[in-house]
Recover the amino acids of this structure.
């Protein structure tokens, strides 16, 4: 039996990009999915698609910046499937801009979604995983969690934070909970659509010319989940072969 089969997996940010691709891949391997994001129509269609293919999934509309909504998501997983095996903390955004633009609303949004949203997820599943004496938390960091790019200070700060959180989970896991930090390079998704600064958008469009497909990250996440329980894949960087930084 595949190590993915019948695992209960929560995915935040499942309405597009990496989250959606990962949901489809894990569903095809028999995972039981609890999918979350804000855009309900997208989630509904995805769940219908997964069910048509013989998979198992439910969805909840969740804004990860609200702790009560993230708690309710974990509750939905427990009520529907009785346990939580994996949380994929994937929801995130990247409105790049130089600090001089002082886009404080975007700074707040990145900190709220990319860091606080991740912590709300951890807080919502950890007590259940402790009771089970098993679980796996997978966080989406970035190459921007390893190096700082011009115009990316706040985004990089949030992704460095995610990397630190992943390592903290690992160190405190007492051998019960697996922690995986996934750091993609440029992947073709909707991530660059929300860049409001013109120059940063042009810079991103250049970098994303060689962007790889979301399935590359879905495969990496699937690899981490399907390892036997005693194997903890802690860190993966997946870049386009042509990406320099
Ligand atoms: P997308 O923009 O395609 O997907 C982002 C997802 O996050 C969407 O499903 C969106 O759903 C969700 N989301 C955003 N804000 C919230 C919120 N407040 N509450 C709940 N869900 C939210 O981008 P990607 O798939 O590329 O991004 C996924 C993750 O991968 C992010 O953390 C990103 O930083 C990371 N990453 C991506 C890279 C890339 O090149 N694509 C590179 C490195 C890291 P909705 O709008 O419906 O709420």
């Amino acid at each position: 039996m595949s190590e993915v089969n019948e695992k209960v997996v929560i995915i935040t940010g499942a309405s597009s990009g990496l989250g959606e691709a990962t949901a489809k891949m894990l569903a095809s391997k028999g995972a039981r999915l609890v999918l979350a994001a804000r855009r309900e129509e997208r989630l509904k269609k995805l769940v219908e698609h997964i069910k048509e293919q013989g998979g198992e999934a439910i969805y909840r509309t969740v804004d990860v910046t609200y702790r009560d909504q993230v708690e309710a998501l974990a509750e939905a997983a427990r009520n529907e499937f009785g346990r939580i095996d994996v949380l994929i903390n994937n929801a995130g955004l990247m409105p790049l801009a130089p600090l001089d633009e002082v886009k404080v609303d975007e700074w707040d949004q990145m900190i709220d979604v990319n860091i606080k949203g991740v912590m709300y997820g951890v807080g919502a599943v950890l007590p259940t995983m402790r009771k089970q004496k098993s679980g796996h938390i997978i966080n989406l960091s970035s190459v921007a969690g390893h190096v700082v790019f011009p115009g990316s200070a706040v985004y990089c700060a949030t992704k460095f934070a995610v990397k630190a959180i992943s390592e903290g989970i690992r160190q405190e896991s007492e051998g019960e909970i697996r922690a995986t930090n996934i750091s993609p390079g440029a992947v073709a998704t909707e991530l660059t659509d929300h860049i409001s600064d013109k120059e940063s958008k042009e810079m991103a469009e250049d970098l994303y010319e060689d962007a790889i497909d979301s399935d590359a990250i879905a495969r990496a996440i699937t690899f981490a989940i399907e390892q036997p329980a005693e194997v903890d894949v802690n860190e993966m960087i997946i870049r386009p072969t042509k990406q320099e930084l």
About this structure: Residues 12-19, 37-39, 42, 62-65, 90-94, 113, 140, 142, 184, 186-187, 189-191 surround NDP (CB under 6 Å). The longest strand covers residues 177-184.
